[in-house]
Write a structure and sequence with these properties.
The complex is a heterotrimer. By secondary structure, chain A is of the alpha/beta class. Chain A has 10 helices and 11 strands. By secondary structure, chain B is α+β, with helices and mostly antiparallel strands. Chain B is built from 8 helices and 11 strands. By secondary structure, chain C is an alpha+beta fold. Chain C contains 7 helices and 11 strands. A 9-stranded mixed β-barrel of chain C has the order 1-2-3-4-5-6-9-10-11. A two-stranded antiparallel sheet of chain C has the order 7-8. The longest helix of chain C has 18 residues. The N and C termini of chain C lie far apart (about 85 Å). Classes of the chains: A alpha/beta, B alpha+beta, C alpha+beta. The interface between B and C is large, with 86 and 94 residues.
Chain lengths: ~325, ~300, ~280
């Protein structure tokens, strides 16, 4: 049953990706966020850019179909080479451009110390090791070339580096929207990049087939709230860039977290009453949030969200 | 002397004539309508007068007021741009002038409560696109129509239309119509929320000019008011379990159905369909003299002798 | 040389004053021939007030003694607590809560039309009440504003009524003035008003609410009617109602009521006054 579900989930993702690829790519829009960080929308998922004297760090690379325009925009707008790609998770609208950037980097031979013979710095693609494992196995997720895989993986609770004179901290969020989620924190720019853990215009896609769970999703949202510090009158301050949708801050994440918790509580209560998934979906425990979080174009409808919550609460 | 005179003439050139009204100044809100709701706060389950849909109603029914203590981020949350005009606070309005041309660029409002601020842009600038952050006050632009200032606001954060759990979504927009008559400023607010309202919510408030007003600071700091059981805890009532929903009907001798809100209950013809109260009352027992004299802070018990 | 400088400065100031008039602003209105002619906005039609404020004081008869939000004087308490609808019925005072200061707060519909060029008629289906708003000369306006209605009004010895005598005018705007020619005087923005101002006196004592919160026959009622349209095409007006009662109110009682235009008067349903 789980294999069928995960296969169906993969088919759904690939269908959405294919449809996006076949339709005309929307124009890219670039917005400054804070400090050295900006965001590019329209490439699939939001692509975050940190740029400075050292070069460019990207968080996610959007869809493969948008990689060309994305790379062109990055080249035109930001000085220096793309030296880091951080993938927040394995979904194709966030890793699809990896191959294109890896090709552009050239993947020149390295010496035994890992340096290039010509002195240039190689592109490093980094994600949590669960992302690499799933992408490399090709059982789930898109097919990437070897060069496009996040081979600079990390398996610890967090990893930090310094780039453009700014700490960059990668936090693994276990079993959240997937089991390989990373949120990226730029303390100096005061920006948190949330990936698809937080998508203000729609329900979170809790990808149970790829290790996601509602408990981890809630814990991840709480962790984002631990990192954010709001400005005057509880707005602004730390910027939160979601995986899709508008620029946000702590207050937006609070509302979202509350919604997930409340729907979780309701589904949990119905499970305790012995209801099946069909019965729980019929009870529509998300019905007071559907009008805000679901549109005709939504990837995750109310019933889908409820099903994911149900499955992650009943998983053995 | 003549040279001096001529130089002074140059310093006071004439200016073109355009229609505008000065709304600047210090304003005090009048609470001659809905005072108990706007100041001490609405009763739980009181959805009267709100054209809410089922989603909003369930959100209200699920609301547990502990939430604004336990979820610490709510403790210092200010009102949205729409509710600011309705809730507790005095207001100061300042013109924002272009330093070079001295032309009006915006009106800036500041509320005493939680230091809420808004800018109403009058220079014709467009609203930002859908990627722009949403704020409590939203993004506002205004135009004059004779003596009426028409304001349109978008990009609002999620907030509330009533402080008992009835939300207003981040998809909402609102318009306002400001008119000044002497020392009175009337603001009519029209909230359109496709997610939670079935028709626009229209409310109007009046402010009176208060030149002696001094507005200080109101800096909020959150604290541990109520211990939180665990990190994934957000106080809420499961559907069908809120024990407080009948209180407002029982306290005021109203039919429960009328307290549930909805567009149908707003129109005159509803009075002929309105059911009888489940617990009728004859005499006021709660907030009877709210807002008057010694009871300006709205004690529950009337200060006047109870009517027989 | 000094004279030349002064002449240049004077001419420059004159030129600036003339050139800076800019595009013609709204014309300074000449006194209209009639109230109807002077209307910048249209109030005619049928209007309904969806009750989105003060619901439990308007949609139902409030409980006896409930005077929340009203700035009444302490000496009105005895009247509030003595409210007796049966007594009002017996005395034929069923319409006591339908007087002009309270009429527009009662959930119902209004039908507004021009009775003649200088009389705007407001018919309320609740209580089958009719208000006539007179557009008259300045002399009678001033009289009405002072509450000296019996002497200043065109019709002498008019008894107080539930609806009183209403004098209306289109609120005067402010003429723009150009400055530059008098020391210390700068130009003034003009403003053109589209508001209808109505002052009502000669009222019988009545109730601000159906549960007997009183206003006296010394009351002056001032109202401002303001029209607006919404992006969805709906047309509305807001009426700001200022009740000045030196007998029962500690301060002016100010409320605002919003009305939406209806496509026709199919739902205009006259019902008689009720004391309950």
């Amino acid at each position: 049953m789980m294999r069928m579900v995960s296969a169906l989930g993969l088919v759904a993702i690939l269908c959405a990706v294919t449809a996006a690829q076949q339709s005309e790519a929307p124009p890219l829009r670039v917005y400054p966020v804070q400090g050295a960080v900006s965001v590019i929308a329209g490439a699939g998922g939001n692509v975050v850019v940190q740029n400075g004297k050292d070069g460019t760090l990207l968080v996610d690379t959007g869809l493969a179909a948008s990689a060309g325009p994305l790379a062109a925009e990055v080249r035109a707008r930001y000085r220096g080479a793309v030296l880091w790609i951080v993938n927040t998770h394995l979904h194709p609208d966030h890793v699809g451009g990896n191959d294109a950037f890896a090709q552009a980097d050239g993947r020149k031979p390295l010496d035994f110390l890992g340096a290039r013979f010509d002195g240039t710095q190689p592109l490093k693609i980094i994600a949590h090791s669960n992302v690499l494992a799933r992408l490399a196995s090709a059982a789930n997720g898109p097919r990437l070339s070897d060069a496009g895989l996040p081979r600079d993986e990390y398996a610890t609770p967090f990893k930090d580096l310094r780039f453009n004179d700014e700490p960059v901290v990668l936090h693994h969020e276990p079993r959240a929207h997937t089991d390989g989620d990373t949120i990226v924190y730029f303390p100096k720019s005061d920006v948190v990049v949330a990936g698809d853990i937080f998508t203000p215009g729609g329900y979170p896609f809790i990808d149970v087939a790829n290790g996601g769970s509602v408990a981890g999703e809630i814990a991840a949202l709480n962790h984002i709230l631990d990192l954010t510090v709001p400005g005057h009158t509880q707005e602004g301050g730390t910027s939160v860039v979601p995986g899709h949708g508008r620029l946000c801050d702590e207050a937006d994440v609070v509302e979202y977290r509350d919604m997930v918790v409340i729907v979780r509580d309701r589904v949990q209560d119905l499970i305790k009453k012995g209801m099946t998934l069909d019965q729980v979906q019929a009870a529509a425990p998300s019905r007071d949030y559907d009008s805000e979080y679901v549109t005709a174009a939504s990837f995750v409808k109310g019933a889908d969200f409820v099903a994911a919550v149900y499955r992650s609460l009943t998983a053995k | 002397m003549r040279v001096v005179l001529a130089a002074l003439l140059l310093a006071f050139p004439a200016a073109p004539a355009f229609a505008q009204v000065d709304v600047s100044g210090a304003w005090a809100s009048l609470y001659h309508e809905d005072l108990p709701e706007r100041l001490p706060g609405p009763e739980l389950g009181d959805y009267m007068g709100l054209p809410i849909n089922d989603a909003a109603r369930l959100r209200g029914d699920s609301y547990d007021a502990d939430r604004i203590s336990i979820v610490q981020e709510y403790q210092c949350r200010p009102h949205g741009g729409d509710y600011q005009m309705r809730g507790l606070s005095n207001m100061r309005i300042d013109p924002v002038l272009d330093p070079v041309t001295q032309q009006l660029v915006a009106w800036h409002t500041r509320m005493g409560f939680q230091e809420m601020e808004r800018t109403i842009w009058m220079d014709g600038r467009p609203h930002p696109d859908d990627m722009a952050p949403h704020t409590w006050s939203g993004f506002s632009t205004g135009t004059w129509q004779n003596n009426m200032l028409n304001v349109r606001t978008t990009h609002l954060k999620e907030n509330y239309v009533r402080r008992n759990g009835i939300p207003r979504s981040a998809n909402a927009t609102f318009t306002e119509h400001w008119v000044r008559h002497g020392t009175y400023l009337t603001v009519t607010t029209v909230i359109t929320d496709p997610a939670l309202l079935t028709e626009p919510l229209v409310r109007s408030q009046t402010w009176v000019l208060d030149p002696g007003q001094r507005m200080g600071r109101d800096i909020c700091e959150y604290g541990d008011e109520v211990p939180r059981e665990r990190r994934d805890y957000v106080p809420n009532h499961l559907p069908g379990t809120n024990p407080f929903l009948h209180e407002v009907a029982d306290w005021y001798g109203l039919p429960f159905e009328a307290t549930r809100g909805g567009a149908e209950t707003l129109y005159p013809e509803y009075r002929s369909k309105m059911p009888k109260p489940e617990k009728p009352k004859l005499v006021c027992e709660r907030y009877c003299t709210c807002g008057v004299g010694a009871n300006a802070v709205c004690l529950l018990a009337p200060t006047a002798p109870r009517p027989r | 040389m000094r004279r030349a400088c002064a002449i240049v400065a004077f001419v420059t100031g004159l030129w600036q004053g003339l050139a800076a008039q800019g595009p013609p602003g709204p014309p300074v209105p000449t006194p209209p021939k009639s109230g109807r002619e002077g209307a910048l906005v249209d109030f005619t039609g049928t209007w309904v007030s969806p009750v989105m404020e003060d619901y439990r004081w308007r949609m139902v008869t409030p409980l006896k003694g409930d005077a929340a939000s009203i700035p009444y004087r302490q000496d009105a308490v005895a009247i509030i607590n003595a409210w007796n609808p049966a007594k009002d019925e017996a005395a034929g005072l069923q319409c006591k809560a339908y007087g002009a200061p309270a009429l527009l707060r009662i959930p119902g519909r209004l039908r507004i039309s021009w009775q003649d060029d200088n009389t705007l008629k407001i018919e309320a289906d609740q209580g089958t009440q009719t208000r006539l708003l007179w557009f008259t000369s300045g002399a009678t306006r001033a009289g009405a504003a002072r509450g000296v209605s019996a002497v200043a009004l065109a019709k002498a010895d008019v008894k107080p009524t539930w609806q009183g005598q209403s004098i209306a005018r289109w609120e005067a705007g402010q003429a723009p003035t150009a400055g530059g020619f008098a020391l210390g005087t700068s130009a003034r923005w003009g403003s053109r008003s589209q508001s209808l101002e109505v002052v009502t006196t000669n009222l019988r004592d009545g109730y601000l609410r159906k549960n007997g919160v009183p206003y006296s026959d010394k009351t002056t009622l001032t109202e401002y009617f303001d029209r607006f349209s919404e992006p969805d095409g709906q047309e509305w007006f807001t009426v700001t109602t200022i009740v000045n009662d030196p007998v029962h109110l500690a301060t002016p009682f100010v409320t605002t009521t919003d009305f939406r235009r209806e496509p026709n008067d199919a739902k205009f349903s006259p019902v008689p006054c009720s004391a309950r």
